[in-house]
C-alpha cells in the first residue's frame, strides 16, 4: 500500500471516529408530498416525466429507500440497479393491491443477498401502488434492460436529477428547497412511521437499519407489511 493510500485510509478512520459535520436535512412529510403532488399533477398531466417522478417519490417514501436503491448513478447494471423486473404486482398490475420491490444491492448488503420489500396501497392521492401502476402502464416501451425510472429523453433518474427536480418543485410551492435532498424521503418515512405509532422493531425492519440487528430476524407477516401504507396515510388524514 502506497503512502497516499495509507494516509487516505487514516483520514477516513479519523472522520469515522470524530464524525463529520453534516447539514441537517428536513424530512419529506405528507405536507411536502402534498406539495409535490400539486406541482406534478400526475393524474391530469400529459408529461411522462411528471408521472415518473411521482412514482419515484412515492416509492422512495413508502419504501424507506436509500437514493442509491432506486436511482442509476453509474452505467446501468442489471445485477445492481432497479429495473422493471424488480417490480412485482399482486395479484396483477391491473388489479394490484400491493407490489413487491426487489432491491438487488444496498449500502447495508455488502454480500449482495438482496431483499424484497412490500408496498401496500391506499385510497387517496398518495397511493404508491397507483403511482407505480400508472407509470408502468404509460411506458410499456421501456425495455427491461433499462433503469426503472428514466425521463422521456431516455436519461436515467440519478441522485443529482432527483434532487434537482425535487428542489425545483418544492420551490414552486413556496418552500425553502435548500433544506431538502434525496435522503429526505427516507428521513420523512421514519418520521411518519414514528408519528403513526408503528413499533420500533417494524420501523427498523422497514428501513433495514443495522442497529439492534437482532430485530431484523423477526419475520414480518405479509399482511402487516401490506397495511403499512394505509396506517401511515390514516395518521395524516387530519393534517394535510
UniProtKB/TrEMBL annotation:
State any GO BP term from the record: DNA recombination
Q: Which GO terms describe its molecular function?
A: DNA binding
Checking Gene3D superfamilies in the record gives: Intergrase catalytic core
- PANTHER family this protein is in? P CELL-TYPE AGGLUTINATION PROTEIN MAP4-LIKE-RELATED, PHAGE_INTEGRASE DOMAIN-CONTAINING PROTEIN
> What name has this protein been given in UniProt?
Uncharacterized protein LOC110045991
Organism for this UniProt entry: Paramuricea clavata
